[in-house]
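Explain my protein.
***
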Amino acid sequence: MRLFRRGPRRDGRDAPRDPAFSFFSVDEAALFRGQVREAFAEHGLEVTLYADSVTDSAGRRFGLGNLAAVCHNDERGPRVWGDLARRHAGMVLRTMDGPSALDTLAPEQIRAQLYPRVIGEDGLDPQSFGYARSVAPGLYEVLALDLPESVMMLTDEALEPLGEIRRLRQRALENLRDLPVEGRETVRDADGRRFEVILGDSFYTASRVLALESVVHDVTGQRIPPEGALVAMPFRHQLAFHVIRDTTVVPSLNALAAFAASGYADTPGAISPHVYWWRGGTLTQLSAREGDGLRIVVGDDFHALLERLTARDSPE
């Protein structure tokens, strides 16, 4: 997985855009949906196409947002969209038509495959996920069951037979801390901008912000000081952080904000375009939408921190 993505050569931005998936031109979207229809047909299922989903004769709906973003971001271009669609259709149908893992796995095996996930509020049904914990404005932590071909986010009903939510969350966090760091890159320049990025194919890479102290120690060998750290989780496969130690936090904040906004756009598993101040496990949002872009917004506590760092680092 690359840190910075460069898209394949496709229709220019001046071509008419698809209303549902603006990263596709109208012609590209028609090709994509045609490949989706063929993919389901090859698996023996005729589907009706809609702008962002398909339905079958039984009324089952299959969303296309993630698959569309995966196709858009694949550097091989439209020539592989058919293969990606067939793989996706097969996985979805095996998951939906087969027995539920909750019925076939022993409770201890389920707990061993349990992980916390940070998701945006758009992907959360409050009626089914009443236990979800808010971790930042618009972001929630839910529990997920990791399966060979899919990730099952667990509802209140699914969790009820497994025990107390507090204990399940504790076990899930232990599982999260045990995950290996798949990849790491350092972003830095002569102006003092510096941050670390962990990245990988795991669906829980960005969610490791919930165990940031162990991640920072594993990656840098150091502890997070009381000043905390800056963090960004643009999409599920990336977590970026800058440990706050001096005034390099200022250029790093601006760089992280740009990084988060860029990584969030048109990405499968998008989580947040914002940068946050992590302090003792609490996340404070430091950026806000402004038109088509973002601006940095800091409160009194963070402003006071910047003043202390500036005074400490200034020559006598």
Remarks:
- The chain is about 35% helix and 20% strand.
